[in-house]
Amino acid sequence: MSTAETLTPTERAAIVTLIAHGPAPRAACTDVLRYVQEQRRYVSDHVLGEVAMMLGMSIAEIDEVATFYNLLFRRPVGEAVLFLCDSITCWMMGQPELQAHLHRRLGIRPGETTGDGRVTLLPIVCLGHCDHAPAMLLGTALHGDLDCDKLDTLLCLERD
Amino acid sequence: MERPLTRNIRPGAAPLDLVSYQRAGGYEALRSTIGKIAPAAVITTIAESGLGGRGGGGFSTGRKWQAMPSSAERPGPRYFIINGDEMEPGTFKDRLLLEGDPHQVLEGLVLSAYAVQANHGIIFIRGEYAEAIRRMERVVAEAHAAGLLGNNILGSGFNLAVDVHASAGRYICGEETAMLNALEGKRAIPRAKPPLPQTSGLFGHPTVINNVETVCNIPHIIGRGVEWYRSLGLNGEAGTKVFGVSGRVNRPGSYELPMGTPMRDLIDEHGGGMRAGFSLRALLPGGASTGFLLAEDLDIPMSVSGFAKRGHRLGTGTAIVLDDRTCPVAFIHNLQHFFAQESCGWCAPCRDGLPWVEQTLNAIEIGDGTQADIELLSEMTGHLSPGRTFCALAPGAMASLQTGLAYFREDFEQHIGRSCAWH
Question: Which of A135, A137, B85, B312 could form a disulfide with A83 if both were Cys (CB 3.0 to 4.6 A apart)?
Answer without folding.
Answer: A137
